[in-house]
Structures are given as structure tokens and as C-alpha cells.
Amino acid sequence: ATKIHTLPFKSPTTAASGLVFPDMGNSGDGSQQMAEQLAEVLPEQPWAYLKYDNSRILKTETIAHLLTKYMDHTGSEYLNAFTSSMGIMILLEAAKIAGIPIGVIFMDSSPSHIRDGYGSKAGIIAAKLPDTGVAGKFLGTFIADTIRPGGEEVLSNLAHAVREANSGGSTKLFKSHVKILKSVDFDRDWEDFSGILHPSHTIAMFASPKEENDNTVKVGQAFLGHQKFLARFCIPLDRIELPFAGHADAKEAIRLGTPWLRESAARIEDLYSPRRPL
Are 27 and 52 in contact (CB under 8 A)? Predict the structure, then answer.
């Protein structure tokens, strides 16, 4: 089943615990690698990562339940989150359901709406098709790669489709992610998030490659969408541009974002740490 996996951590309770929310369809070890890199950057707090079950439909209510258990386990009040691509949607929806306040948000190539995706129309159509197992995942991956800007490398697209098909023969995770993307509307429902976002404890950053280097998300448009949404809560959003990265290059985003991550996490701990003397 979809689970939260916690990295070893033996220090006293911290104000915030960290969690990685991987991108669409990521059921491999990508989220674990992100969490381990973040644990090196911020060793003073617990870190964990979500790992999706590719054979089942994903529901944000399930993630909300897992979040509640994780926060009870760590004893922290705030959640610091690293979100890769559409992981931002899952974070905010699940935290809203669970009523968990957000501390640091570091978004990497994250859409603010389904229309921010280059292949959003094709994805909506594909999500309505029957689950055809390995063949469906292979064909869907190949088509998705081909319709992206600069996606003319047929052999490369075929190789990627083979790798994806071998990693799990189901399109259920993809279909459920598209459903989540379609249902989230920050413009329409922004007030629903007032219980978890607040300028006194929420700090946000948007990292992405240059517009021309991201063939999945229209990152300039997505940044403006997130900036508008967070501005409703008086939370500023800055941007780190990754000059040599592609879409959702988490390793590079964390590397260039390390100074900001350390400063922001330290602010949360200084203000809200349960170890702080009265």
C-alpha cells in the first residue's frame, strides 16, 4: 500500500517534521533519494518520504490519514514539505483534510492547476481509458513523452516507456493523479486552506528550470499561479531558477536551495520549538 517511510532519527522532538511528496506516478525510489539528501541538509529534524503503490487508486484521504499518524509519531506540530511536480497538490489537499499546519514548502517544478501541464488535455483523455496494465503504461508513457515540447527523440522515448512499464504494470496511479489535479482549484477554493497556511509559520519557495528546459510543466505560468494563491494569505513566494536542470530535477533543486532551506527551517525551530525555554 501507499506508505510513509521514516528515516532514522533519535533527537528530541522538533517543531517541524519533514516529508517528501514525489511527483506523478513516482513509485520507485526517487522520493527516498530526495529524503536522504534533505536529511543531510537538515539533519536536525525528522525526515520521511511517501512511496506510492502503483497498483491502486490514490486518494488524498489516505494520505491525510498517513500524515496524521506521522505527525503523532514525531510529536511535531508543523510539516516541512519538499514537493516534486504535482506533489504540491497532494501535500495541500491531504494537509487540509488532516488539519496539519504547514511550515516550510519547497516546490520543485510544481503546477498550480491542471492547465499548467503541456500534456494536460491528452492526460485527461488518457485517464478515462480502461486500465490496460503493462501495455497501457508503455503506450501512455511513450505518447506523453512524444507530445511534449522537444519530444521528437523516438528511441529515447521508447527506452523510457520500457523502463516505466517494467517498474509496474498499471495506470491506476496515473489516473488517480489526474483526478486529483482536476479537482484542485486554488482560485476557487483558496479559503479552504486558511487552517493550514499562515504568514506566521508558512514559508514558501518555488524552484524550477528555465521555461524552455521544462517539457512537462509551464513553470512560469505555474509560479504566478502559486504566487497569487499564497498572496491571499500574505505569504510571499520567491523563485530559484535552475539554469542547467530539466523538469523536477530534485537533486539540483535541493543543492541550489540548501541555503534557503536551512535558513527557513531554522526560523520555524527558533519560533516554535518545544525545546525553547519559556
Answer: yes
Inter-residue contact 77 to 99 (CB < 8 Å): no
Q: Which residues contact 191 (CB under 8 A, 6 or more apart)?
A: none
Cell of 63: 494520505
Q: What is the pLDDT of residues 161-205, one digit of tens each?
A: 566 555 554 566 666 667 777 788 999 999 999 999 999 999 999
Question: Alpha-carbon torsion 132, 135, 141, 147, what sign?
Answer: negative
Task: For residue 217, give the C-alpha cell.
Answer: 510543466
Contact at 8 Å (CB) between 225 and 116?
A: yes
Please give the Cα distance from 72 to 66 (Å, whole number).
Answer: 10
Q: What is the pTM of this model?
A: 0.83
Of 254, 275, 267, 250, nearest to 87 by C-alpha is: 250
198 exposed, middle or buried (CB, 10 Å; 0-12, 13-18, 19+)? middle
Q: In the beta sheet, which residues pair with residue 208?
A: 241
Express each pLDDT in 248-278 by its tens digit.
Answer: 899 999 999 999 999 999 999 999 987 554 4
Record the cell numbers describing residue 85, joined without a space.
Answer: 511536480
List phi, psi (to 5°) of 119. -105, 30
Amino acid identity at 125 = I
Convert the chain into a string of H (helix), E (strand) and C (coil): CCEEEECCCCCCCCCEEEEEECCCCCCCCHHHHHHHHHHHHCCCCCEEEEECCCCCCCCHHHHHHHHHHHHHHHCCCEEEEEEECCHHHHHHHHHHHHCCCEEEEEEECCCCCHHHECCHHHHHHHHCCCCCHHHHHHHHHHHHHHHCCCCCCHHHHHHHHHHHHHHCCCCHHHHHHHHHHHHCCHHHHHHHHCCCCCCCCCEEEEEEECHHHCCCECHHHHHHHHHHHHHCCCCCEEEEEECCCCCCCHHHHHHHHHHHHHHHHHHHHHHHCCCCCC
